[in-house]
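Exercise 7 asks you to align residues with tokens for two separate proteins.
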Amino acid sequence: MIQQTVLVFLTISTGAFGLPNPRILGNECSYKDFNLITRAGWNARPARSPTSLSTPVELVIIHHSYQPGACFNTEDCSTAMRSMQDYHQLSNGWDDIGYNFAVGSDGQAYEGRGWDRVGAHAAGFNIRSIGIVLIGDWVSIVPPEIQLETTKQLIAVGIQLGYISPEYRLVGHRQVRATECPGEALFKEISTWERFSPDV
């Protein structure tokens, strides 16, 4: 019986250490290469009636916020998150901020609906995707390198945690809806990334 208990413990421990588990630091989760600011960290309101997302998802859809503009520190990016949540919840009448995650020009990721809740960012595709918005207007200029790298790292974490399929396809919002989003400059950038798909 003792041997069985030890074996189970070792199996669970090995599985846990094999994942990129974060260090919890107050309102932040510190991964190896970036920080994830939790909903509490940016002072989010509660979601009204969240819907569970079936994972792993097959699509990662990239957006830009256009407005609010780029943010370069936690305070400004948190303000941008609250602004987007206000617009989505109060003006659009949605359950919550539409995106699963956001990434700021400060190099930090911000938790939106998270890994396990259906987003409201790409009608017709929400139930099979994770939506990531890069805060800022990326029509004419490419986001800072740190913002791009954090986005890639966030996707990698999603794969390692089992929320994103290793065979996922990366697309821009404009590929699933008639919109300029995620901005011409950012779209050209992500079209060079691994797993980018010209077809949805």
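Second protein for Exercise 7:
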Amino acid sequence: MATWSNFNFQNSTSPLMEQIIFFHDHTLIILIITTILVSYLMVSLFFNKYINRFLMESQMIELIWTILPAITLIFIALPSLRLLYLLDELNNPLITLKSIGHQWYWSYEYSDFNNVEFDSYMTQFNNNNNFRLLDVDNRIILPMNNQIRILITATDVIHSWTVPSLGVKVDASPGRLNQTSFFINRPGIFFGQCSEICGANHSFMPIVIESISIKNFINWINNYS
């Protein structure tokens, strides 16, 4: 989860989030190099005393400053396209979870099991047991090291189901079913929130995922039913 003065990404919980962080670092390095180069050229232009009254054109330098940005954009575009296709890939999910956005709470249905559905409301802040504006009364329980498919929709206005540590952000639109998948590679509790400005209480729609082993997950399903 995010903490005070944390300007970086949260620790990744899924392979997709790791790839997103790698792409971010790759792009940032290119931006830093470009910024330093352009800044150096601009400063040197201000302070040098070179004068050439007969220089009217230079096709070679125009060719260079056209081709170099194009090559730089290719170095950004190719990893970006690869990542876009990876984010849309759905690979034999073990479990399907349906998430329904309401004003202002989430409902969840485990489509593979009978009668496993519940509403998830934000809980009142308590100094000992929970996090302010982040904890809920009913958490999503999911098994780790398994592919999970999530179907997302809404009943009233547009919401957005977002869990940063998983690298998942999907709009929940009324009358439309959106789909994505993720793979949780470690146990833990992971927090998210609605990231669409969906009304007065938009900030009070937290998401909490509890990742457990497959054995404990089966026990939870049996006890719930």
